[in-house]
Amino acid sequence: MADLRVIVDGLKLPNPFVIGSGPPGTNANVICKAFDEGWGAVIAKTISLDASKVINVAPRYARMRVGPKENQTIVGWQNIELISDRPFDTWIEEFKQVKQKYPDRVLIASIMEEYRKDAWIEIVERCQDAGVDAFELNFSCPHGLPERKMGAAMGQDCEVLGTVCGWVNAVARVPVWAKMTPNITHIEEPARAALRNGCEGIAAINTILCVMGIDLKTLRPEPTVEGYTTPGGYSCKAVRPIALRMVMECARMMKHEFPGRSISGIGGVETGEDAAQFILLGASTVQVCTGVMIHGYGMCKTLCDGLSAFMDRHGFKSIEDFRGHSLQYFTTHADLVQRQAQAKAAEKNAAKGMVTRDAAWSGDRFVEQSSKLVSNE
Ligand SMILES: Cc1cc2nc3c(=O)[nH]c(=O)nc-3n(C[C@H](O)[C@H](O)[C@H](O)COP(=O)(O)O)c2cc1C
Hints:
- The protein is of the alpha/beta class.
- The chain folds into 2 domains: 6-326, TIM Barrel, CATH 3.20.20.70; 333-372, no CATH class.
- Helices cover 36% and strands 17% of the residues.
- It has helices at 28-36, 88-101, 117-129, 152-155, 158-171, 188-196, 240-257, 272-280, 290-295, 299-314, 333-342, 345-351, 366-372; strands at residues 6-8, 11-13, 17-19, 41-43, 61-66, 73-79, 106-111, 134-138, 176-179, 201-204, 208-210, 213-214, 221-222, 232-235, 262-266, 285-288.
- Strand 1 and strand 2 (11-13) form a beta hairpin.
- The structure holds flavin mononucleotide.
């Protein structure tokens, strides 16, 4: 039987599954529910010192569904939700209560503040005095907060991000992860700035800035609030390939420049097999946010069963047995071309009916030829 336990940055988790910051970690009540259902750790909803500045709207979600009408699957989820609108003092009390009830479980505070040293120091010191086990710095919320130069606005500016990480790490006595925005061309750059300034790890990714769609009857964009909207953050299954790519890019950079630092993979995870892919790219833990909003807290058991079954199939006894294994298989396109030539793949593939030269595409067999070039089915 596979051992799912993880030790990351000194934190001991019964399994790698972590509640990602958002509605599933939005008060003590639901955080306790997550621990009861067996989640490895919980990252609470992002908090700031002055919640009175946070004003949410409703509705604030829009979903993308695919499949036949009677059996549709949710593949994409947009939100225009802000960080927590609950008072900071209430959160401090709840952190204490949760840690009293679950002293051995890992509770991580997600924090965000304006670009002021005293504010960051105060939020870190008060949360760690309340007993949280680690911090995740939210440099990545794509909507609402950037207008106050917070969230993704900080995450896209390596100098500002690095300075804030320096302030935080000067006072933090517990591990600190920096949560990256995907709304940037080279995610390794802010990741590098965070790690250079003392963070133990990075978390990637937050939501991708999006416009879900336009209602063709009303001609208004979704989610519609009094007839108007604002671009929001995209999550769920549809973002997983992008998240995997960004985790891979961070992992490759970190392997060379920051060996031993950690990655928490996030984006579209709903099964143990999804999680296995993030771990194969170097993640030690895997966060789930939207999946919990669709399937509920009980999905932790399915996640653990799926990951365990995958490990058993390969004979992996622990997470470390396969963490980062698949990174070695990424290369340049030029190298792929060279490898294929060397292996005389052209002839072999031709024998299997696979198109290797553009001239071989046929109008009559086009769909069959396309299908034969697919590798993951
Ligand atoms: C409704 C909603 C609210 C979120 N709020 C936060 C937040 O307060 N802080 C944060 O760091 N990320 C927040 N996120 C982002 C998630 O933690 C996660 O990074 C992202 O949704 C991708 O993962 P997923 O596909 O598992 O949801 C939120 C996501 C959703 C869907």
